[in-house]
Amino acid sequence: MSAASRYFDNRNVLGLVFMLPAGALLLFFLTYPLGLGVWLGFTDAKIGRIGEWIGIENYEFLVTDSVFRLSVYNTFLYTLVASVIKFALGLWLALLLNKNIPFKSFVRAVVLLPFIVPTVLSAIAFWWIYDSQFSIISWVLVKMGVMDHYINFLGEPNLARMSTIIANIWRGVPFVAICLLAGLQTIPPSMYEAASIDGATPLQQFRHVTLPMLSPIIAVVMTFSVLFTFTDFQLIWVLTRGGPINATHLMATLSFQRAIPGGALGEGAAIATAMIPFLLVAILFSYFGLQRRRWQQGGTDK
Amino acid sequence: MASAEPREGMSYLDTMPRRWLTVYIPLLVFLFVLLFPFYWMVVTSFKSNAELLSTSGNPFWLVEPTLDHFRKLFLGTSYPKWMWNTVIVSVTATFVSLAASVFAAYAIERLRFKGSRQIGLAIFLAYLIPPSILFIPLAMMVFQVGLFDTRWALILTYPTFLIPFCTWLLMGYFRSIPFELEECALIDGATRWQILTKIVLPLAVPGLISAGIFAFTLSWNEFLYALTFISASENKTVPVGVITELVEGDVYHWGALMAGALVGSLPVAVMYSFFVEYYVAGMTGAVKE
Predict the structure, then answer these.
(1) A225 and A167, same structural domain?
(2) Binary contact (A34, B137; C-beta < 8 A)
(3) In total, how many domains does chain A have?
(4) Quick one: which of A228, A263, B247, B265 has the most CB atoms within 10 Å?
């Protein structure tokens, strides 16, 4: 055996070599920009000009900036409402799909389509559905005599918020449903049989068998869902670009708007950095969700 | 029907009307809402402009299907070029990420080098870092190294979300391969490289397919990086091109927009229809592990 090959038999050396391509790419394009982004938030960098360190000036400005405060409010509203409804509808759809239904696998496959298709492209379909002059929803409502005028879905603040949230829910429900369905299928039928022999009603079975067995996967799925809703950019950018009068700006869209078309890289980076604490909370939540799972499967807690 | 019968959990005892009310009707409503935008996309893209803008008649149906919008899309815009760019970027980024992820996942899961557990956790955390907080510094870096407005800018940055995802997924697959197989091979004198290529990879093919098609879909759908790093029309990807170039001022060419959205969705939809099981395994696998 040559010296070189013995050297590669050492698992630490070999491990390092195997980690090298992924590690290098991630360090250079993920870890470094993460740090650079935080640093940029403390500078007055503009497009085409390396910034100077200005301390927390960007943040001081943002705290007094009504548009930024509105975007924080919007982000929380958007995340909270969309996540709660996505969870409720997703769980419902998962329970329906778990029943004995005809064309089961076909229905399941079709349900996931909104999640698979590029968000930007399906958002264009929603843009057309929400159009102020040709909206199909308005057309149906007017024909049915419910309304006498066309709804300006994306033109009024609260209506625009609702419309974007609905589009987000439409895209997110399949993801939640299919993941929860996978969780439902791991629950052994014998548990339901035992429960029903003990006289548990369907509601009691749901409360005392389904929910506890499903809770670890719910924690993880909802963390993902909350995370991606909180940092959403595509839907808003296509549907409203943050308008009308900044009513639908999320932190991500505002950050883009200020940094790229606006040129204020430092300020945009500060807005993006302001999202990190909230993301950390979500990630910690997910981490403990994973731990619970290990414990539930009979593994060790730590 | 609220009798004392223990029909819970035994749905075959449900009566038909009750089943319609609790299962089929809600399911049909779900399906209608989830699929309507696609139907609407298809119908709109085949309608003539006159038909699109008329308020009389039934808008749900096509009276005179026309291919005008598709003709305009393919002959009057850079759409074919955007398609080509998206294909190149997605395929390259997927292969680069998959290759890097196979080695990383194998090292973390099977070589168990010092600190592999921490690195595994770091990979999971990396997956949770969204593009929304990375695009500004990345834009700056891309500009400084002179890759701005090139496909390379996308090929090199897409792995930031593809590698964590693929690695995490493949770790789960590698974990399910019995250790004994590798031990036997080691005793027979196989090298680590031989074990990886002759034993582990053939057994992990379903995982590789899942990770590959999912990575391809994620790259195909990516929007923020492509919007930020690309400015020339001929370098754009489909999602960015459709949004930025098919909308001219206040005149919306709805037919062409819908045709562009439809054609841009087809590749992933077709691939999805062939690999549904792998998709679901990829998605739920990444969440379940």
Answers:
(1) yes
(2) yes
(3) 2
(4) B265
DSSP B126-186: HHT--GGGTHHHHHHHHHHTT-TTSHHHHHHHTHHHHHHHHHHHHHHHHHTS-HHHHHHHH
Same domain? For A154 and A23 the reply is no
**CA of A174: which chain B residue's CA is closest?**
B34
Residue of B nearest to A129 (CA): B37
**In this structure, what DSSP letter does residue B204 have?**
T
* Interchain pair A30, B134: CB under 8 A: yes
The whole-number pLDDT of residue B5 equals 41
Here the tokens at position B97 are 């990420």
CA distance A128 to chain B (A): 7
How sure is the predictor about B102, in pLDDT bands with cuts at 50, 70 and 90?
very high
**pTM, to two decimals:** 0.88
Structure tokens of B241?
A: 């091109």
In chain B, domain spans:
11-70, 77-288
Give the amino acid at A89: L
The number of C-alpha atoms within 13 Å of B1 and in the hemisphere containing its C-beta is 10
Model confidence at A291, pLDDT cuts 50, 70, 90, reads low
Q: Cβ contact (<8 Å) for A202 and B9? A: yes
> Average pLDDT, stretch A233-244?
88
Contact: A196, B8; criterion CB under 8 Å: yes
pLDDT for residue A178 is more than 70: yes
CATH code for the domain in which residue A193 is found: 1.10.3720.10
Partners of residue A2 in chain B, C-beta under 8 Å:
none
A296 alpha carbon, distance to own chain's centre: 26
Residue range B135-145: average pLDDT?
A: 90
Q: Do B114 and A272 touch (CB under 8 A)?
A: no
Any B CB within 8 A of A183 CB: yes
d(Cα A276, Cα A255) in Å, to the nearest integer? Answer: 13
The superfamily in CATH containing domain B77-288 is MetI-like (1.10.3720.10)
Same-domain check for residues A187 and A61 = yes
pLDDT at B56 over 80: no
Query: What is the pLDDT of chain A when averaged over all its residues?
Result: 86
Do A228 and A172 fall within a single domain? yes
Contact B21, B29 (CB under 8 A): no
How does strand B247-248 pair with strand B251-252? antiparallel
Residue A52 lies in a domain: no
For residue B226, give the H/E element and its range.
helix B224-229
pLDDT digits (tens, 9 = 90+) for A88-114: 999 999 999 988 888 888 888 889 899
Q: ipTM for the complex?
A: 0.86
Q: Is the omega angle on the peptide bond into residue A114 within 30 degrees of 0, that is, cis?
A: no
Q: Which residues of A touch B26 (CB under 8 A)?
A: 92, 96
The answer, yes or no, to whether residue B11 has pLDDT greater than 60, is no
Domain that holds residue A223: 57-296
